[in-house]
Amino acid sequence: MTLKDFLSSLGTLNVQVIIKDSEGTMICKVYANSISSLEESLSNTVVEHWSIVKNTLIVVNLKGKEDVTPDVPDDNNQENTNSDETTNNDENTNNDENTNNDENTEQNNENETVAVTSITLDTKSLNLEVNGTATLVATISPDNATNKDVIWDIADSTIASVDNGMITALAEGNTVITVTTVDGNFSDECEVTVVSEI
Fold first, then answer.
1. Do 198 and 174 form a contact (C-beta atoms < 8 A)?
2. Which of 77, 119, 146, 196 has a CA-to-CA distance to 22 between 20 and 30 Å?
3. What is the DSSP string of 59-126?
4. Separation of CA 156 from chain center
């Protein structure tokens, strides 16, 4: 009886079969219901004798078959497969951790405060008639500064008034308008001259 015929006789039973050569050296382990994985040369080898060790384990000795290394799955291969899966899982975990670290770094960068370094008015002097108006534009650097709040002030509020950069001339005379950043206390000035209406 060949090994293939012997395994076929066991049907679909989930029985592990230990295959040994004529000297008693183990060649491999295989389940009775997976005979298709055996090499043809091994499948056609004659069974010398076999014995039942326990209900789910049978030992088969082959006649004159030595030093055979069949291409069948064994416990070592299973262990190697598990090791590969564990390694891949570890790599995936590390990749996830790296991705999370990158996201946290980007979030921290977004939360960083960017300080003001300077403020500049678009003009240093203005000439207005009484009741005339003009608007001053203040530019803060850097452009991505976190706090761009400013305070507008005027030296003589009887000559002119200022509201968020909008100047209104009230009476003849000279005065100075100052804009100051809340962050860093940087400032710039504009001299205003008011003349009578023509």
1. no
2. 77
3. EEEETT--S---S---HHHHHHHHHHHHHHHHHHHHHHHHHHHHHHHHHHHHHSPPPP-EEEES-SEE
4. 58
Strand partners, 153: 178
Distance CA 91, CA 8 (A): 42
Domains of the chain, residue spans:
3-75, 118-195
- Its pTM stands at 0.47
- Residue 20 main-chain phi, psi, to 5 deg: -125, 160
Q: Is the dihedral of CA 78, 80, 84, 86 positive or negative?
A: positive
For residue 198, what pLDDT band results from cuts at 50, 70 and 90? confident
Q: Are 161 and 120 within 8 A, CB to CB?
A: no
Structure tokens at 61: 């000795």
Q: Are 161 and 154 in contact (CB under 8 A)?
A: yes
- Residue range 118-195 in CATH 3.30.365.10: no
Q: What is the pLDDT of residues 141-179, one digit of tens each?
A: 999 999 999 999 999 999 999 999 999 999 999 999 999
